[in-house]
Amino acid sequence: MRTILVLAGLLAAACGEIPQDAPKPYAGKEDTKAYASDTFKGDKAKYEQTLAKRAEYQNEYVRTGDAKSK
Amino acid sequence: MARMKFICDAERCIECNGCATACKQEHEVPWGVNRRRLVTVNDGLPGERSISVACMHCSDAPCMAVCPVDCFYKTDDGIVLHDKDLCIGCGYCFYACPFGAPQFPQAGAFGLRGKMDKCTYCAGGPEENHSVEEFRKYGRNRIAEGKLPACAEMCSTKALLAGDAAVITSIYKTRVTTRGKGDEIWGWAVAYGGSGKLAEQGGGKA
Amino acid sequence: MLLTRKSEAKVQPVNPLARAVHSLASKTVDRRTFLKGTGLTAGAAAFASQLPLNVIGQAHAQSAKAGNTVVKRTVCTHCSVGCSIDAVVTDGVWVRQEPVFDSPINLGAHCAKGASVREHGMTEHSHRLKYPMKLVDGKYRRISWEQAITEIGDKLLQIRKDSGPDAVFWIGSSKHSNEQAQMFRKFVSMFGSNNTDHQARICHSTTVAGVANTWGYGAMTNSYNDLQNTKCMFFIGSNAAEAHPVSMLHALHAKETGAKMIVADPRFTRTAAKADQFLRFRSGTDVALLFGMLHIIFKNGWEDQKYINDRVYGMDKIKAEVMAKWTPDKVTEVTGVSEADLYAATETFAKNKPASIIWCMGQTQHSTGNAFVRASCILQLALGNIGVSGGGANIYRGHDNVQGATDVGPNPDSLPGYYGIAEGSWKHWCKVWGVDYEWMKGRFASKAMMEKPGMTVSRWIDGVLEKNELIDQDSNLRAVVYWGHAPNSQSRGLEMKQAMEKVDLMVVIDPYPTAAAAMPDRKDGVYLLPAATQFETSGTVTASNRSIQWREKVIEPLFESKPDHTIMYAFAKKLGFGAEFVKNIKLVKDKTGWDEPLVEDMTKEINNGNWTIGYTGSTPERLKAHMRNMAAFDPKTLRCTTSVIDKETGYDCNGDYFGLPWPCYGTAAIKHPGSPVLYRTDLKMMDGGGCFRANFGISRDGVSLLAEDGSHSKDSEITTGFPEFDHLLMKKLGWWAELTPEEQVAAEGKNWKTDLSGGIQRVCMVNHNTHFWGNAKARAVVWNFPDGVPQHREPLYSPRPDMVAKYPTHDDKKAFWRLPTLYKTVQQKALADKVHEKYPLILSSGRLVEFEGGGDETRSNPWLAELQQEAFVEINTKDAADRGIKYWDWVWLKSPTGAQIKVRALVTERVGAGTSWMPFHFAGWWQGKDLLDKYPEGAAPIVRGEAVNTATTYGYDSVTMMQETKTTLCNIERA
After folding, report:
1. Cβ within 8 Å of C, B 65-124
2. Is A5 touching B (CB cutoff 8 A)?
């Protein structure tokens, strides 16, 4: 899969197209990382884990326990 | 790596505007600037559906592509933000955005629009996290507190989901499989002409 | 916001960017507008300052590091679902609100109103009533609290002396806490009057009367959460998607897991949009529809015969009536629903059990609302859906504490706890309140007046305007106090304005001035006093499912506002009964040096007196522990089933249902868990089980009213039907000896309702699993209502003279809630005047999700106001075309009363041809004129519009005096 993507990127470049994932120019102020301040103190893994866990509050099935699987 | 997205489950959305006012409240967004709003199709008719629309934090954001002063950037999590100090209010991002996300606070002479404002995924902007400046310009930074966007967290029926794409698609999938239907609302069949499945679902007899 | 393919002309936008937007989405029609040009202008007035270019809002100290930050847990004040909110307060300023995911009731969810409550705590650009005001020469002037209390008190005392205590009408509030509500009933009683009421009158009064008279209590039998356990939900006259949005979390979850959903409504509401089946039927024909369904059920043998035999009285009479009278053709003739559609819906409802019926104002606000709700109950009894999880009669109440205020608050025909106002009831409450019965009696004009139900909020205007010889009290009303109630939610606005102009004194006590401040053309005689919101005090609130939640105080009262109970005590002192008012209640000094009755003491007074409905076990300690440990409660059952020890008090939540849904019988010591699903015979009483109440005697016409043998709450020692318990029955059974000596002293000569020790309840329930309120059958036929079997009767203003001839309304009543009340006369006159020809459109009204009640509060919140900026009437596409009306044209809505209101036309298919609909939340315009100048400066709502009730007509329920606002007539023409 990765090879195909890389190839596609190369092909696109060859046709003069800008690949979607290429970094875009930014002329503004640098932003502090979300996990940089007191809550996470730079621990990116903990930050991602926290957000993933928090997202489950949007899923009431966790508490009702009656989800069906196909 | 996390990629932050929104999904609005149209089977659950009841157009309650909870997401809209949650955003207004959280960031004290002024009158006339609508970062998030409800879009309804078939209002008052069988087949009525609503979804909540704001910036979709596109992977290849057209706003970013067209901005003449390059004021847009993307965070590690794929959240699209911009620097208001650079923004010249030209409105190109507004023309480019398929969702109408960019908002402008003014309607002045000579097309004077003021600084573009839009949904920040509750991630603030290029100022120090949780600073007064950040709040004044961009609103609250919930992401840096380990919280998710207020709109989704407060949605009345949990129609609007926000978080890492893998996590929220899994939540949505649970619903679709439990329901036995719903995934046909989105996808190729709908975008490019379907098998008529859309006509079969939901709604009532009048 | 709507994007459709219809090409309707839109309002011309005012700026180039908006025009660009407009061209992108050019074919838009909806009741919201995107980037509305006029909205920008209106909004600029909301914020006085010009916004600088690069900021989006005012500066705030946002860092949590600065200052002292606490989190207070409170409950939204807008509807009866009861969504919890964590309010973050820094240095006494409410800076943030967070969702409470732990709550089993809302799991963090909010609608537009709940998500924006923090606005109440903002002082910049606030539209609140900030200080006491007095109308002087037509303008509101600021005065001091002292001056206000003195002048108002003097005037009230004068009126009381000259004309008697019944000359004042005290309108209380469904937005008071339970503590304030019970104190208010006490206040009015001590003033010497039963002339008090609150929003329940115009909301679910018909429900309470109809349902209580069917089986015992007039409250929601199950809960919003319990909908998760249903197999079929039938919404009739309920637009839950807009009126109770978070309840849809449970409903849609149920739908997702396989439940069917049926909606019956004259409008294709947003709730209907989620339904599997929709029945559009003519407003006011619910009995025909429901009995049409019952006809099909009986015809096909889908009824639960065993349940009927065991637990229902009179179903045979109902069956006879229904089979003869409500054949499909008759149903179609009256309701407009086809036989096929009705059959399909009935089959779904009957065959997918347990099934739940849900209703709201659509059923209640009619001249025969009491019949509608009983028909709904009868339908559920026939199917055996009552007393079952997933079933029930789910009554969605309106305001946040309308349930609590109905339970313990200002009702004209009852003291707290539905005890009524007979002598025994007064003696019970005098004992609880610690005052002498004779003293209380002396406060009233006479014993007869003390035991006569007062007037209702729906008719106070007639108490002012009606001829004195026709009213059933000495004097006309000379003063009205609007204490936490808006005026524009009651019908007959034209006459209301006259009444407001005629009274000697009008006092408004509210966080907002309300439309009452602006409606009357007066020079003086009006006072506005700033009450604090429920966020500025603590107390309990009862959700529709009867769960009670404790609200913590978030912030100190803003501006010069004061909590309602503080204001009540100040007036009580001025009016001469201060000491009696707080006999058992400690006073504490508040931050302004005023005496405030202690909230927890007022809660305890509720616990001490309300044995009928089981508010006795829900003490502040237990309720607060629940609020601190919400995650322990299961959202499907509401129960905590493991040991969860509250860190602060050591209280174990094990076994409790969240919020101890009443009845929570007995004292707190016996730890009754609450009753989330009423009348469940498959559970023991101490697990929340029960049976139907024996409240109507033992037999009727030789037929037993008691339950059949074998039908009883689980493990009940008495397995037959039996009457309610009193000391005599206790002695007869030999259970008297099980009371402690102290309990025996208190219970001597008493029954389960008046035994202040709770001993009778304890012994019956804990020792014998037996229900002390008796074990009887539900009554499908009642003998204390005008129609024993629910009848269809046309509304007073009906569009169908042929139907009026077949199904006429009631006879006029001479003295009904102290006033002559007309039925036949009005209906006949309307026919004679050919009202249905000149005003051929049915006018109905209802709710929007963005606003609440009379609306001044929510229309003063910019985040809500922006979403609905103009009052409008929904008119069907065909009716609009007939009148040359295009989308969003200005139109005049004309009423048979001669009133006309100017609103926008929302042309839509949502309403059927022949029906029109307006939201009732708007006020601040009067027949085309904006009343902005008549509001006190800085306290007018941001959005103002015509009140639909300026154009509504006479019509009242035949049991409760509920207003007939769901169906009257109008015509609409282009302005």
Report:
1. 84-85, 87, 89, 91, 94-95, 100, 104-107, 111, 113-115, 117
2. no
Give the Cα separation of C186 and C189 in Å (integer): 5
CATH number for position B51:
3.30.70.20
Place C67 in a pLDDT band, splitting at 50, 70 and 90: confident
DSSP string, C673-726: ---SSTT-TTS-GGGT---B---S-SEETTEE-BPPTT-SSTT-S--S-B---B
User: The pTM is what?
Assistant: 0.92
Q: Does B116 touch chain A (CB under 8 A)?
A: no
On whether any CB of chain A is under 8 Å from the CB of C107, the answer is yes
Residue B172 touches partner C, C-beta closer than 8 Å: no
Chain A: touching chains (3 or more CB pairs < 8 Å)? B, C
In a domain, B205, yes or no: no
Distance in angstroms between the alpha carbons of the first and the last residue of chain B? 48
Query: Angle C518-C521-C524 (CA atoms, 0-180°, nearest 5)?
Result: 90
Distance from CA of C345 to the nearest CA of B (A): 11
DSSP C421-457: SSHHHHHHHHHHHT--HHHHHHHSS-HHHHTS----T
When divided into structural domains, chain B yields a total of 1
Q: For residue B158, is it within any domain?
A: no
Indicate yes or no: CB of C109 within 8 angstroms of CB of B11.
no
Each domain of chain A, given as residue ranges in start order, spans: 35-70
The Cα of A43 is separated from the nearest Cα of chain B by a number of Å equal to: 11
Of C74, C785, C82, C844, the residue nearest C396 (C-alpha): C82
Which own/partner pairs from C936-939 qualify as long-range (CB within 8 Å, at least 24 positions apart)?
C936/C129, C936/C133, C936/C140, C936/C513, C936/C517, C936/C528, C937/C140, C938/C127, C938/C130, C939/C127, C939/C128, C939/C129, C939/C130, C939/C512, C939/C513, C939/C517
C405-441 per-residue burial string, b: 16 or more CB within 10 A, e: under 16 = bbbbbbbbbbbbbbbbbeeebbebbbebbebeeeebb
Chain B contact set for C34 (CB, 8 A): 34, 37, 100
Residue C587 amino acid letter:
L
B79: in domain: yes
In a domain, B194, yes or no: no
Condensed to tens digits (0 to 9), the pLDDT of residues C504-560 reads: 999 999 999 999 999 999 999 999 999 999 999 999 999 999 999 999 999 999 999
By CB neighbour count within 10 A (0-12 exposed, 13-18 middle, 19+ buried), where does A4 fall? exposed
Kindly provide the ipTM of the predicted complex, given to two decimals.
Answer: 0.92
Among B22, B107, B202, the residue with its CB nearest the CB of C115 is: B22
Q: Note the pLDDT tens digit of each residue in C623-679.
A: 999 999 999 999 999 999 999 999 999 999 999 999 999 999 999 999 999 999 999
- Residue B66 belongs to domain spanning: 4-153
d(Cα C774, Cα C344) in Å, to the nearest integer?
Answer: 39
Cα–Cα dist C549/C747, whole Å: 30
**CB contact residues (below 8 A), chain B span 116-145, against chain C:** 117, 130-132, 134-140
Would an 8 Å CB–CB cutoff place B15 in contact with chain A? no
Q: CB-CB: which of A32, A54, A60 is closest to B148?
A: A54
What whole-number distance in Å separates Cα of residue B111 and Cα of residue B92?
Answer: 12
d(Cα B122, Cα B141) in Å, to the nearest integer? Answer: 5
> How far is the C-alpha of C649 from the C-alpha of C640, rounded, in Å?
17
Point out the residue among C1, C29, C268 whose CB comes nearest to the CB of B206: C268
Is there a contact between C134 and C160 (Cβ–Cβ < 8 Å)?
Answer: no
